Amino acid sequence: MHGCISLLAQLSQHSLSHYLRSHYGDRTFEHLYRWNWFDTSLLIPYFAVMIVLASYGMHRYQLVYLYYKHRKNAATEPPQQFQQLPRVTIQLPIFNEQFVIDRLIEACCNLDYPRDLLEIQVLDDSTDETKEVARNLVEQYRQAGNPIVYIHREDRHGFKAGALDHGLKTAKGEFVAIFDADFVPPRDWLMQVIHHFAQPDVGMVQTRWTHLNRDYSFLTQVEAILLDGHFVLEHGGRSRADVFFNFNGTAGMWRRKAIEEAGGWQHDTLTEDTDLSYRAQLKGWRFKYLQHVECPAEVPIEMTAFKTQQARWAKGLIQTSKKILPRVFKSDVPFHTKIEAWYHLTANISYPLMVVLSTLLMPAMIIRFYQGWFQMLLIDVPLFMASTFSISSFYLVSQKELFPRSWYKTFLYLPFLMALGIGLTVTNTKAVMEALFGIQSSFKRTPKYRVQKRGEKSKAAKYRKRLGIVPWIELLIGCYFALTIWYAISNENYFTVPFLFIFVMGYWYTGLLSLLQGRFERWRSGANFEESSPKPYPVGV
After folding, report:
1. Do the domain assignments include residue 132?
2. Strand duo 202-211 + 252-255: pairing
3. 273 is catalytic
4. Model confidence at 112, in pLDDT bands (50, 70, 90)?
5. Residue 359 in this model has a pLDDT that exceeds 80
6. How far apart are CA 251 and CA 244, in angstroms?
7. Where does the pLDDT of residue 244 fall: very low under 50, low under 70, confident under 90, or very high at 90 and above?
8. Total structural domains in the chain?
């Protein structure tokens, strides 16, 4: 990297020195050239950030490569089965989930598994009406003959990890399945998963999330594509290549012994699932990912809910990287597993780097105004292709795998995929910096509203979060990039305009939707969308 930065600095110096000599002559050149060192001091961090971002972009290509290279390793049918089915405990950690808890309990009670070998724990930390709703539902299903119990905590110590650990103390199952409140496991889910544990070294099995409300709005369409990329290429590539990957906190099953040997559920990070996953794999437990086994769930319907979810994941992964990566690098796992763990757990460091890039972009454009097209093609295009185009190709491939007949429609969403990632920069940078500096925060749940159809009215106002100043900051940054576009057009630097426009769209999109989501919700609830003739590309939120 040092050599690349030196080359970039020399190229920027050469272009400016040529301009100074041609316009001011040799007499005044030495005096004016001193300013070039100031220019270089700005360009070096600018290109350094671009190179680091490009390296993370290149890693996406690596995941696609691993996915296809090791396709024969994809987990399908279990190689062996239990002669006698083991006892299973299903844990349902909930917190203020009154709109979805009945659907979850009904789905779990309908699972195809012997009643005498099944136990369902409703782990309720709620502080609102959900307590009474859940308690009554549990009693109703228990009287109907279902093996279900209600466990309520008052203190919420450890949040979700604390609830899971508390339930595990009284759990009877040798295996533990976990479902968040907005999930609806299919009737055959347990039977598709349990036999993979017939192999004694398997500690966890994760299944793929699908999306109940994918078609609710344009935002949910984009969110679904983002999650598909994670579950197809990240989980698929890592699991097939036999490197570490993580349990996603829900829609998966654990061998209880693996949890206990890894040190149990711990709540010093906000991604307790990833933390436990790495500790268990470092103990030698093998994980399996079943891409063909689906578990439907909801994606957030509001921008603030989506940003809350993403910020929690971003902060939690950085916290986990600080805790786990030293153990990973000291372990005797293969070097390529260590490198993959590094990229996995540190990926969100790209958000603070995006802030630095955003700050330096305008000065860099001014400094490089007199740079020739050849140098821009030599430097900027490869970095742009690595850091930006890799995102597009990554999600296109995932959609092609899931929807081979209609994946080309994803092209319409690509600008919004990149824009939404950029728009999350402010929120996620704050989360990452809190993690780096050890600032603790509570586990902020993602609200679930049980909204699946376009135009369906939600009860979003009940759990809607305060917006604060962040949306206004996003709008201001969007204005800054709009000014940058004006400067680029004024100076005929048309090459950068599409790239800059994505920044403007991203910051304005996230900022405006955060501010207007309440008004949008009221507008949408009165909209007249006909279910019989759904639009292929719904617009709205």
Report:
1. yes
2. antiparallel
3. yes
4. very high
5. yes
6. 18
7. very high
8. 1
pTM: 0.87
Active site residue 128: no
Q: Do 228 and 311 form a contact (C-beta atoms < 8 A)?
A: no
The pair of structure tokens assigned to 284 is: 């030698």
Catalytic residue chosen out of the listed positions 39, 124, 125, 182: 125
Q: How confident is residue 44, by pLDDT bands cut at 50, 70 and 90?
A: confident
Residue 223 maps to a domain: yes
C-alpha distance from residue 80 to each of 83, 200, 239, 415 (Å): 9, 11, 19, 45
Q: Retrieve residue 508's tokens.
A: 């304005």
Position 488 scores a pLDDT of: 84
pLDDT at site 526: 37
Q: Tell me which residue range forms the domain holding 90.
A: 78-305
Single out the catalytic residue among 124, 165, 182, 273: 273
**C-beta of residue 269 within 8 angstroms of C-beta of residue 319:** yes
Length of the chain: 541
Task: Look at residue 93 and give its three-state secondary structure.
Answer: strand
Q: Is 474 a domain residue?
A: no
Domain assignment of residue 337, yes or no: no
335 Cβ contact partners less than 8 Å away, ≥ 6 residues apart: none
The CATH code of the domain that includes 267 is: 3.90.550.10
